[in-house]
Task: structure prediction
Amino acid sequence: MTIIAETDRLVIRTWIPQDDAEQALKIYSDPEVTRFFSSTKASDVEQMVNILERWLKRATQLNNGTGLWAMVLKETGEIVGTILLILLKGNDGQFTEDYEIGWHLKKSAWGKGYATEAAIAIINYGFNILNLREIYSIANQDNIASIRVTQRLGMVPLGSTNKYHNKKLELFKLSAPTQ
Ligand SMILES: CC(C)(COP(=O)(O)OP(=O)(O)OC[C@H]1O[C@@H](n2cnc3c(N)ncnc32)[C@H](O)[C@@H]1OP(=O)(O)O)[C@@H](O)C(=O)NCCC(=O)NCCS
Result:
């Protein structure tokens, strides 16, 4: 297990598939949470273990500092969601060179500022540790909660795009501060 970042309330760390799957399932078996993305849905612990193992394997293979990580509440050890920094896939299913930040919270953890808090830490990680120049976010136009997070982060709306996932999506961008 590797800790990626820490905030006031959260530890952001790599997943431990066997130990974490039950808690992760609370996020990825809820249709309200997965409403706007098709790739990650699970209906039992075994499926969830497989997904978490796939994420870890991909991060190891790519070895570029990207990944999908658990957000863990420091106070209780509860896993409240996922924060991710990954390469966006183009319409052909291949990785592009565009880095995407994203967030998935279990419903009981909505409205508490965890997505924004974790994203600020991962944006710093992306700019300062990975030396990225730009970080993007994508959202379905109806995903108001996610678009609000991009606004809180000061991301710039670039309008809709058809470049990724064979879907029309709203695109947001944050540039690294210039020195
Ligand atoms: C998108 C998603 C993560 C947004 O969650 P969220 O809880 O609205 O976002 P945040 O964690 O940033 O929380 C912001 C809210 O917490 C409140 N908040 C901020 N800081 C806070 C703090 N320190 N303490 C308590 N509350 C706080 C804010 O006032 C805000 O509430 P508001 O929207 O009523 O103004 C969540 O809706 C979700 O998981 N959706 C499903 C997955 C999804 O679609 N993900 C993105 C697309 S792939």
About this structure: The pocket of coenzyme A is lined by residues 33, 36-37, 102-105, 110-116, 139, 143, 145-146, 148-149 (CB under 6 Å). The CA atoms of residues 71 and 121 lie 11 Å apart. The helical segments are 17-28, 31-34, 45-62, 114-129, 144-152. DSSP finds five helices and eight strands in the chain.
